[in-house]
Structures are given as structure tokens and as C-alpha cells.
Specification:
heterodimer; A: about 180 residues; alpha+beta; 5 strands; elongated; B: about 750 residues; seven-stranded mixed beta sheet
Chain lengths: ~180, ~750
């Protein structure tokens, strides 16, 4: 162990950032958090709020496992800092079902076996919810293209497309 | 069992709801007060020594608790035996933080533990480590010259079968010949869930571990051995595993580091690897394979030579079965097979979905396509001409082999008969169209496994085992089998898995889980049936008096006579008559080998590619995979297994490859942006067919397993389709645009 005085000197050299208070409305509930500026929205959800349904797959915006809806739009929560989203409405996988009733996408994912290990699944479903809200995808090819930011290593893609198609066709406008 | 209620019926995953709502917790998702976070520091050099580690700055950061290195680590076992897990190959297993020697790039050299993840991550950047660098050797092409036959064979892996006849002479005399070398690259499993271990300090030396693993008892025994603990001090669980594909068969270094820190600090510690660190342990080894095939003018094989070289680390001789498969697939009187290893300054490879088989079948099935082309035969016809009804390595017939039915069903569904034989003869607008096919084969493995079934007075049934469910559907099939056996609804059955305190089970892998665990669950439930019938006969004037187990059926919560359904006793009444709160039965399945049969799963894969003639962009537009895998317990999840494996086959054919900088000995594309796996837009129509295959010999359920067969042969079918589309034969995976346009 380094001598105390040296440690004290280094601490000045390598300070850690002070915490800030951030308010997030997560799944309809207002949550106040004390987080450092370097904490991502993803880590704030997983570590501070114990909402571990949102997954960390790469932490670099390359896999989509951390997809959540912020103010209705799908984003990679690993690429957003929590302090940037002060006041935002955040919807995570835990906020999609109405009590015991699954969201149409959740039910369709189960019915179509659109996952295996389940790790990318919350991101896929949140991304699909964002996709439906965007109203851009009309065909299976468009679904494939616009869902390509969410990697599924188990390779459930055809079932993911089928699940989303089912929900899309039940909502002819392609909107919620 | 003839008519079934649950077995063989497409069933949604019983853990589906937990997975789509985010309730399912994975290894890194157990948050508790006072838990510390460990961040791993990885070696930037590939070979050499640590000269000095300066931890002062890191320790000075507010919130840093400790930095563990080879210099201050707690006591670790000192003999190889203690690090050898259930599936370790021969050699000297890697020991995390054991000494100052650097064996590969990315090797863990320190664990920074802090109160918060971000602080640990920051402090990890402040470690100053001086290294003594040595020049690493990571170039497989260069190391190949020193390839050797592994002196000690890996348990469970058959070495190359002995020569049949004289392959060389037969080749020289053959009317039709092909000879070529094929290359497959390093691939990384990249499950979506990064490797993680949460080690919970329970006090008094007791540790509860949530580990990302395919074998909780393997992790338990390994951790106990490495730290000199009694196994009952280490309780390992892995209720949900976010993909593994073989990477979780051996305990990985984050388990050692998390448990080490928990023991050293006497507090709970979580260690999660980054995606970059997912490239700092095992992988599928690259291979170079030489194939020389000879046939008569009519296509009958006369000579089959298959020589493979694969890579391994300097410290272990990882081995897989790459070259034996032709002996099961094709009748040929003269055959010579060899398999060698080349040592590199990389980590030890490990099993990755259909290890050995997938690379071997790629080369074999491309070689067969080349031979068909040389003989001017249809590739499917060539396979039928050489169809083998026995395993020629051991001269044994199969327990079952419906490969002909796979060829038939697959070809029909695909429309193979409409294929024009000449390469570059099919086109659609600006795209060249190619149709290729291949055969798949995998061992129908089984292992010793235990299960327990407990029936409560209210009719709730619990079945349990230490096996894992890595997304394969284990929870669901055991629920189906138990419900079927006792005639209770699926919702009355609770399946428990992946807890080291549950009945013994090996690692979940090798496509053996359904056959092995399914049989154990079936046997345990058979035991409950016997107990229930005896109790039912104690009911006053029992309608089942005198009945034997064979005389009754368990249906809709009742035990009833097969010959008179009106004579029945409900399970609840039976339990009441027995005056018991619960009954339980444990069972252990031990595979029986009659010594007279070979056991394999088969498939036929047909693929269509469309290739932009100007740009060389390849799309795999259709794949039909027809599989013969015995009885299918759950067609819904089994189909997903095959489909997912076909996606892997597409990745293997077109995308996946880990590149090494040989000067530095470092992997260059260690991220999901640069290590390409298929995304949704890469995947088009995939058709899965299960052909009927009855197997009364293999096990009472007639099950063979489907986890791996779907990837075997798929890359070859695609490579063959690319040749058919373009007339260009690329023998070096993945087939990227640059190779095609070269």
C-alpha cells in the first residue's frame, strides 16, 4: 500500500466527479437520482434503479441490447448519459405490460418464439415498439432493415420479423 | 407412448414471460447493498513478463477498494489438476493472476475493485504496468510447419480413425479426382450477454455465485479446487444464461477473479467483462484442411483423404473431431485421415457450436461438390450414390439414419429438381443465382444425468436438475415430459435448473441435454407413477384394485384403466389415500451402449444465393434444412434451434472472422462493429423440416438432440451455391466480396 501522503496527493490529481441530481420519469414514475456525469442512462437504470431488464451487450452502441424508449423514441441507452436526459420520459421493458397483461409485442414474441436465451429480447421489443411508433416499416424487408440495429446471436431473426408483422398487421396504420 | 398430449406438441417457452418482461435475471443482475465492482485490466502484450505494477494512482482514487494482481493475490492452488475442469483438454490450464508470465494478448493482469463500476473503470486506466516483451507467434500459416499429432488425446474426442485400404494408390488410379485446401478462420462465440460473475459473500467463508456458465457444478467444483474450499462453501447458480454456444463449458477467468476478490475483501463482488474482453479467452480454432477425393466415372468413391491442421495454445492441446465424419457419411473402401495441432501464443480454443464437425463438414461437403462438378454429376446424386448404411470406422449400423428422407424432403421443398447443373447458368435481373447443397452430421451424444420429481398434495409437480438452460428450451421440454408422464397440465409443473445443489448434471452442451435430462425426468416420473398407483389402490373399494402400471394411463389428473376409462382415481385422491404431503422420486439416466450401433443425427441443407454481378454482394435468399434427429419433444423450440444454427452457418459462410495482428499478437477486430455477425437484414427465408425418424435403440424417449446439427453443412451449402452462381470456388471462409471479385 502506498504511503498516506502520496495517496492524498494522487487523489487531487485524479478526482472523481461530483454527483448531480437527475429526475427521470421511468415507466410513468418520477425517480430522482444522484448520479455522476459519467454514468450512462443504461447503468443508471440497471444499477441505480435495479431495472435490469434493459441489457448491456457491448456498451458501445453496436448491439442494441440496451434499447429503451426516451420520450417515445428508441435509443441505445449505453450511448446516453443519465444527466443528459434530465426530465425525460423513459420506457423500459418493465414498463410495457399492463399489469399481468403482456404488451402485444411481448405476447407475439412468446407466441412466435422470437428469442432463445432472452438477453437481446428486451432491446428487440423496445426497438420494435419504437419502430411501430415511427410508422415507417410496412413490409418484412423494411422490418428487417429497421430492426438491424438489434443483434440476436441466437439467430431468432425470422421469428422476430414474424412477431412484429403480426402486431403490425393488427394495427393497419402501423401506429400505436 | 403413442398418442401424446404434450410431447411432440409445439409449446411456447415456459420461461417466455420472464424473458419478455425483463424479469429474468442474468449473472450480472443481482444488485445488493454493499456490493463492490471489479474491472479487469487486460495485457496489451501477447508474450513476455510483467516487470513492475504500479497501483498507487489507481488506489488513490476515491472509492477504490483494492487492486488485485499476481503480486498481492490470495493463495491459489499450485497444481494443474486443480484447474482442470470437467471438459479441460490435456495440458496445463491457464491460471488467472497466478504469476508474472504473459501467455496471450488480453490476459487478465489485474482486477480493480471499487465501490462503483465507473470508479473501478476509471482507476483501471491509471494502473501502470511495465512489461518485458517477447516476440509472439500467432501466424497459423507459419506455425503449421511445426504441426504435431497431439500426444495425449482429449477425453471424449475420437482421434482420426485408422486407415482403410490404400487411399494414395486408389487416388492415383481414380477416373475422377479433386484435390484442394480449405481454410476456416478463428471465430468468437460472442453470446449477447457478456461474461459475468456475481460472488455474494454470505459470511463465514460461504459464497453464493451467480455465474455465466453452461455447468453450475463444473463452476462449483472448479472454484472449490482453485481456492482450496469445500464444495459446500460455494453455491453456484445460473438460472438464465444469455447465450453461450460452448463458451460457457469451461469456467472462465471472471469466475476466479470475482470469487478471489470476495474472499480477499470479505464482501460481495461483481465482475463483468467488456465486449472487447469477450475476445480474451476461448474461440473456434482456425483450420487448414487438405482434401483429396477419387471416384469411378460413375461417381462411386474409391479414395478419401482428409488432413487437418488446427490451432491451439502453447499451454493446452485442445482437440476436436474434424476429420472422422466422412467414414459415417460416404461409403469408400480407401480412406486416410490425419489431424494435427499447431501451437500459438493465443488462449486455448474451446468448443463452439458443433465443434470440429462444422469445420470438417464444410471442407468435406465442398470437396464432394467439387467432385460432383468434375464427374459432371448432380451434387445430390453423388451423395446418394455413395450413401453409407454403416459407420465404416467401426463397421456398425446406425440406431437410425433417415438421411435419405432428409435429402428427399429438403430437395422437394427447395425445388432442387429445377436446378440447371452448369455454374453461372441461372440469373435474375442483375443478379447471378446459385443453388447449392450439403449434408450435415453430428453425434447423438448422451451423458449420465440426474433429476428429481416431487408431487405435492395439491397436485403441483416440481422437476429439477443441475443442468442449465442456455436458451435451448430446457425448462420447457422437462415441463412437457413431466406433464405428459403424470397427466397434469403444463401450468402445474415447475421446472428448476442451474443450481449446484440440485441433482447432479454435467455441462449443458454437445446436444445431449434433451436425450439425457429428458430420460432422467421420464424415469423419475415413472417412479412417481408407481407410488401413485399403489396409493390409489388404497382408496376404499379402489376402481384400480389389482391393476398394474401397464394397465393404467395418467390423463387429466387421473389414473385410469386403459381398458375402462370410467375406472379411475384422481391424483389428489391417491395422495389423500396415501396420507402424504408430498411424494418424490430421484432418477439417474445412464446411457447404455449396446456396442453394436453408431449414433448420429443427420441433415440435408439446400441454399440459394443471389449475387450482384457488378458489386459481388451476396445474399442468402433461401435455406431449407431437413433434419433427422429422432423424436422431437418440442417442435417449436427445436425449429428455433435449427433456424438459429442456420443463421450461424450464414455468418460462418459470409461474415465471421477474427483477425490477428501478427506483429503484436493482438486480435484486431474485437468488437461487434468489426467482428461481423449476421443481423436481421442478412437473414431471409429459412425453412426447417423435421423428417420422421423412429429410434427405439438410442433411449426410451427416442430423442437425439438438435442444438448443433443445424449449423453443420450450412456454410458448405452456401459456398457451393456461390460456386454454382459464379463459377468461382472460394476455399477460404468467410466468402467476402474481395475474395469473390479477386
Amino acid at each position: 500500500m502506498a504511503p498516506r501522503s502520496a495517496a492524498a496527493k494522487s487523489a487531487e490529481k485524479f478526482p472523481t466527479p461530483a454527483k448531480l441530481t437527475v429526475t427521470l420519469v421511468v415507466n410513468g414514475i418520477e425517480r430522482k437520482l444522484a448520479v455522476a456525469p459519467w454514468t450512462t442512462l443504461l447503468d443508471a437504470l440497471r444499477q441505480h434503479l435495479d431495472l435490469t431488464g434493459t441489457k448491456k451487450g457491448c456498451d458501445h452502441g453496436q448491439c442494441g441490447a440496451c434499447t429503451v424508449l426516451v420520450d417515445g423514441r428508441r435509443i441505445n441507452s449505453c450511448l446516453a448519459l443519465a444527466v443528459m436526459k434530465d426530465g425525460a420520459q423513459v420506457t423500459t421493458i418493465e414498463g410495457l405490460a399492463q399489469g399481468a397483461t403482456l404488451h402485444a409485442l411481448q405476447a407475439a414474441f412468446v407466441e412466435h418464439d422470437a428469442f432463445q436465451c432472452g438477453y437481446c429480447t428486451p432491446g428487440q421489443i423496445c426497438s420494435a415498439a419504437g419502430l411501430l411508433a415511427e410508422g415507417r416499416a410496412k413490409t418484412p424487408d423494411e422490418i428487417r432493415e429497421l430492426m438491424s440495429g438489434n443483434i440476436c446471436r441466437c439467430g431468432a431473426y425470422p421469428n422476430i420479423v414474424a412477431a412484429i408483422e403480426t402486431v403490425l398487421s393488427a394495427k393497419p396504420e402501423g401506429r400505436r | 407412448m403413442t398418442a401424446t398430449t404434450y410431447i411432440g406438441v409445439p409449446t411456447s417457452r415456459v420461461d417466455g414471460s420472464a424473458k419478455v418482461t425483463g424479469v429474468a435475471r442474468y449473472a450480472a443482475e443481482y444488485n445488493m447493498r454493499g456490493m463492490a465492482h471489479g474491472v479487469v485490466v487486460s495485457s496489451p502484450i501477447a508474450r513476455g513478463y510483467i516487470r513492475r505494477i504500479d497501483t498507487r494512482d489507481a488506489l488513490a482514487v476515491d472509492g477504490v477498494i483494492d487492486v488485485l494482481t499476481c503480486e498481492n493475490r490470495p493463495n491459489l492452488a499450485g497444481s494443474d489438476e486443480k484447474y482442470r475442469d470437467e471438459v479441460a483438454p490435456p495440458g496445463s490450464p491457464f491460471r488467472p493472476l497466478y504469476d508474472d508470465k504473459i501467455r496471450y494478448s488480453g490476459q487478465p493482469v489485474a482486477l480493480v475493485v471499487a465501490e462503483e463500476l465507473e470508479i473501478a473503470r476509471y482507476a483501471a486506466t491509471l494502473l501502470r504496468i511495465d512489461y518485458e516483451r517477447e516476440q509472439p507467434l500467432t501466424d497459423f500459416e507459419q506455425a503449421r510447419a511445426q504441426a504435431y499429432v497431439p500426444p495425449k488425446k482429449r477425453d471424449g474426442i475420437a482421434p482420426p480413425a485408422e486407415d482403410l485400404g490404400g487411399a494414395k494408390r486408389a487416388l492415383a488410379q481414380a477416373a475422377v479426382r479433386m484435390e484442394a485446401e480449405y481454410r476456416t478462420p478463428i471465430e468468437h462465440h460472442n453470446p449477447m450477454e457478456p461474461y459475468a460473475t456475481t460472488a455474494i459473500w454470505e459470511g463465514d467463508g460461504q459464497i453464493t455465485v451467480f455465474d455465466k456458465t453452461q455447468g453450475v457444478q463444473n463452476s462449483q467444483q472448479y472454484a472449490a479446487n482453485v481456492f482450496g474450499l469445500s464444495p459446500d462453501k460455494v453455491h453456484v447458480m445460473a438460472p438464465y444464461v444469455g447465450g453461450a454456444f460452448g463458451l460457457g463449458l469451461r469456467p472462465q477467468y471472471q469466475l476466479v477473479l470475482a470469487v478471489m476478490a470476495a474472499l480477499a475483501l470479505k464482501r460481495s463482488v461483481r465482475v463483468v467483462l467488456t465486449r472487447q474482453q469477450m475476445f480474451t479467452f476461448s474461440y473456434r480454432p482456425a483450420t487448414i484442411q487438405h482434401l483429396a477425393l477419387g471416384a469411378q466415372a460413375d461417381g462411386h468413391l474409391v479414395s478419401f483423404a482428409h488432413d487437418a491442421v488446427a490451432m491451439t495454445s502453447r499451454f493446452e492441446d485442445y482437440q476436436e473431431n474434424v476429420v472422422n465424419w466422412s467414414r459415417q457419411l460416404y461409403a469408400c473402401p480407401n480412406s486416410a485421415l490425419t489431424y494435427k495441432l499447431a501451437k500459438l501464443d493465443l488462449y486455448t480454443p474451446c468448443d463452439m457450436r458443433a465443434p470440429g464437425g462444422v469445420v470438417g463438414a464444410y471442407a468435406i461437403e465442398c470437396a464432394m461438390d467439387e467432385l460432383a462438378h468434375a464427374a459432371k454429376l448432380d451434387p445430390l446424386e453423388l451423395r446418394l450414390i455413395n450413401y453409407s448404411d454403416k459407420d465404416q470406422s467401426e463397421d456398425k449400423p446406425y440406431t437410425s439414419k433417415e438421411l435419405r428422407a432428409c435429402y428427399r424432403a429438403g430437395a422437394e421443398k427447395f425445388g432442387w429438381a429445377k436446378r440447371s447443373r452448369e455454374p453461372r447458368s441461372m440469373r435474375e435481373g442483375s443478379e447471378l443465382v446459385g443453388w447449392g447443397m450439403a449434408t450435415g452430421i453430428w453425434e447423438a451424444l448422451q451423458v449420465k444425468a440426474s433429476a428429481k420429481a416431487v408431487l405435492g398434495r395439491n397436485g403441483d409437480l416440481e422437476v429439477s436438475s443441475a443442468f442449465c438452460d442456455i436458451g435451448t428450451g430446457t425448462y420447457t421440454f422437462m415441463t412437457q415430459i413431466a406433464a405428459e408422464m403424470l397427466g397434469v397440465p403444463l401450468y402445474s409443473v415447475a421446472a428448476r435448473l442451474a443450481d449446484s445443489s440440485l441433482p447432479d448434471a454435467p455441462v449443458e452442451g454437445g446436444s445431449w441435454t434433451t436425450a439425457s435430462l429428458g430420460s432422467a425426468v421420464q424415469e423419475a416420473c415413472m417412479g412417481l407413477r408407481g407410488q401413485l398407483l399403489r396409493m390409489a389402490q388404497r382408496v376404499d373399494r379402489s376402481p384400480l384394485a389389482g391393476a398394474r402400471l401397464d394397465d393404467v394411463a395418467f390423463v387429466d389428473g387421473n389414473i385410469r384403466r386403459k381398458d375402462d376409462a370410467s375406472r379411475a382415481v384422481s391424483l389428489v385422491d391417491a395422495m389423500r389415500a396415501g396420507d402424504v404431503e408430498r411424494i418424490e422420486q430421484s432418477a439417474t439416466f445412464e446411457p447404455e451402449d449396446d456396442g453394436k450401433h453408431a449414433r448420429f443425427t443427420h441433415s440435408a441443407i439446400f441454399a440459394e444465393v443471389k449475387i450482384d454481378e457488378e458489386l459481388g454482394v451476396i445474399r442468402v435468399t433461401r435455406v431449407v434444412n431437413a433434419v433427422a434427429a429422432g423424436r422431437i419433444i418440442n417442435p417449436k423450440t427445436a425449429r428455433s434451434q435449427i433456424m438459429g444454427a442456420v443463421v450461424w452457418g450464414i455468418g460462418m459462410a459470409l461474415h465471421e472472422e477474427t483477425l490477428v495482428d501478427h506483429k503484436l499478437g493482438r486480435l484486431m477486430n474485437h468488437s461487434l462493429a468489426e467482428y461481423h455477425v449476421p443481423v436481421n437484414a442478412d437473414i431471409h427465408d429459412i425453412d426447417v423440416i423435421f423428417v420422421e425418424e423412429k429410434d427405439d435403440i438410442i433411449n426410451p424417449l427416442g430423442v437425439k438432440g438438435v442444438g448443433e446439427i443445424g449449423i453443420v453443412g450450412t456454410a458448405a451449402a452456401i459456398a457451393n451455391a456461390i460456386f454454382h452462381a459464379t463459377g468461382r470456388r472460394v476455399r477460404d471462409l468467410p466468402i467476402t466480396i474481395d475474395k469473390l471479385m479477386r
